[in-house]
Specification:
326 residues, Jelly Rolls, Phage tail protein beta-alpha-beta fold, 3 domains, 13-stranded mixed beta sheet, 18 strands
C-alpha cells in the first residue's frame, strides 16, 4: 500500500519527517521517488533535508551520549507522532558550539562503532584514483591527504589538505559528508570537486546537489550543477563556472579560460613537482586561456612568452620565474 508523503507546514519539520521515513523499516520502494519529488518542489526543501542529514549524521556517530541517543529515538518517532517537539527541544537546546563539538567528535570518536577506516596521501605532482567500500570513486590531486571513517549510519571523509574529486554512490540511508577545515559538504548521489588550501576552500559541483556549511551551522550555500563555492581569506562567493574545465586536472590537463595569471600559476603549483614563481606583481592579473599539461609548468611559461610582456628564467631547481618584460 502506498503511503501519503509526510506533510508539514514547517519545512524543517517536513525534512525531519522525510528523514525518519527514509531511515525506518517502514520505507517502501515508492518512498525514494516521492522524496525526490518533494526535494524538487522547492530549493528550501532540498536545503532543509541536506541540513538535517548532515546534523543527524554527526549526532548518530556519538550516540552513546544520552542527549544524542534521545535525539535518535525522537527522529524515528517523529513521523508517527506528527508533532514539533523535536525542533522545540533541540532547536534552541543545543548551542552552535555544542553542534560543532559534536561534529568533531563524530569523526574523532567513531571507535565505539564498527568503522571502515582508511587514509591516503599523495606526493607533490602525484594523482591517485580510489574506489571506496560503498562504490564511491575519488580522484586525489597533488600533495593531498584524505581520511575516511564509514559506519552503518554515515560516510565521513576529512580532507586534511589538497584536492579531491568525489563521485558519490547514492545511499539514502547514509549521508556522505566531506569535511575540510570547519566546513562540511553534504551530498547524495553527487559529483563534486573539493579543494582545501590555507585560507582558501573551493567546492565545484558537476552534478547532483551539495549543501555547504560550517560545522554545526545552517548551510551557507546549496549548489546546483555548474556552480562553484569559494571561501578565500574570509570572502565567500558563489558563481557559475564551466565545471568540466574547473575539474580538468583529473585528466592531467589544466583547461584555462580567461583566468588570472596568478590563479593559473597556483593551479600549476598544486599539480606539478616544480613551481612557477611570479617575480613581478604587475603580472598577476594578466588573463590567460588555453589547455596545458598540468605537470609541465615550463611548457606553460614558454607558451606565454610570445604573447605577453613576460620574460622567463629557469632555475637550477627546475622552478620557473616569470618577470615583467621592460
Amino acid at each position: 500500500m502506498t503511503r501519503p508523503p509526510p506533510r508539514s507546514d514547517d519545512v524543517e519539520e517536513a525534512a525531519a519527517l522525510w528523514y525518519a521515513r527514509m531511515t525506518s523499516d517502514l520505507k517502501t520502494p515508492t518512498d525514494e521517488a516521492a522524496l525526490d519529488a518533494w526535494l524538487a518542489e522547492d530549493a528550501a526543501h532540498a536545503e532543509a533535508y541536506a541540513e538535517f542529514c548532515a546534523l543527524t549524521g554527526r549526532f548518530i556517530a556519538i550516540e552513546g551520549h544520552p542527549d544524542l541517543a534521545a535525539f535518535r529515538v525522537e527522529a524515528q518517532l517523529l513521523e508517527e507522532r506528527g508533532r514539533r517537539s523535536f525542533l522545540a527541544r533541540f532547536g534552541g537546546g543545543l548551542a552552535v558550539a555544542s553542534l560543532a563539538a559534536a561534529a568533531a567528535a563524530a569523526f574523532l570518536y567513531l571507535g565505539t562503532q564498527d568503522i571502515d577506516r582508511a587514509a591516503w596521501v599523495t606526493a607533490r605532482g602525484e594523482t591517485r584514483e580510489i574506489t571506496l567500500s560503498d562504490g564511491s570513486e575519488i580522484t586525489l590531486g597533488s600533495d593531498t591527504r584524505l581520511e575516511m571513517a564509514f559506519s552503518d549510519e554515515q560516510r565521513v571523509l576529512r580532507l586534511e589538505r589538497g584536492q579531491a574529486f568525489f563521485e558519490v554512490a547514492r545511499d539514502e540511508e547514509r549521508p556522505f559528508i566531506a569535511i575540510a577545515g570547519d566546513r562540511t559538504v553534504t551530498a547524495l548521489g553527487t559529483a563534486f570537486d573539493l579543494r582545501s588550501f590555507r585560507d582558501d576552500l573551493t567546492v565545484t559541483l558537476v552534478h547532483g546537489r551539495v549543501a555547504i556549511a560550517r560545522e554545526g551551522e545552517r548551510p551557507a550555500a546549496l549548489l546546483n550543477p555548474g556552480q562553484q563555492f569559494r571561501d578565500a581569506f574570509g570572502a565567500i562567493t558563489v558563481r557559475d563556472v564551466d565545471a568540466l574545465a574547473e575539474t580538468s586536472w583529473r585528466t592531467g590537463v589544466l583547461d584555462l579560460d580567461n583566468v588570472a595569471l596568478s590563479d593559473a600559476v597556483a593551479r600549476f603549483n598544486r599539480s606539478a613537482r616544480t613551481s612557477i614563481v611570479i617575480g613581478d606583481t604587475r603580472l598577476n592579473e594578466l588573463r590567460v586561456s588555453g589547455v596545458f599539461r598540468a605537470n609541465d609548468p615550463a611548457g606553460f611559461a614558454a607558451a606565454l612568452a610570445p604573447a605577453y610582456p613576460i620574460t622567463v628564467r629557469h632555475e637550477s631547481s627546475g622552478d620557473v620565474v616569470l618577470n615583467y618584460a621592460q
